[in-house]
Design brief:
mainly alpha, Zincin-like, 2 domains, 5 helices, 3 strands
Amino acid sequence: MKLIRTTIAVAAIASIFVLGIKHIENVNDSVVNIPDPILNSHVNQWKAKMTSNNIEWRSGLNRIESISFGKSEGHAGLSYNNKIILDPILKNDIFKLKFTLWHELGHAVYKLPHGDGIMIETIPDTKTIKLNWERLQDDYYVKCKKFEFNVY
């Protein structure tokens, strides 16, 4: 009987420890549903870039329920109702996909308004994005840092 009580106590303590660790992991990473492996990879790259630039993203990204390809009502991407939806045609152009994803993440995570750079209302052509990607990113980081308070 003592062995059973000890086993139950150890199991209870272990489960509390494991559940506690799991909770900490979720706080440190996102729980957004991203079923497409291509999008998941790009979101992970975005998270890494934001982290390396000391820009908080976790709480804002965790407000998003899903990021997926789907009907975007004639737009390259949409951010609404805690969802990001990207036009499937973007799968054919990695630069436009990344540009649009970062744009929509800017809206959803930081509540960035339209403006210039990545937050412009129309997608530039692929050549323009490719040639200016470093500058576009640097400008984006400044905007995200400025609006970082919207993450919480």
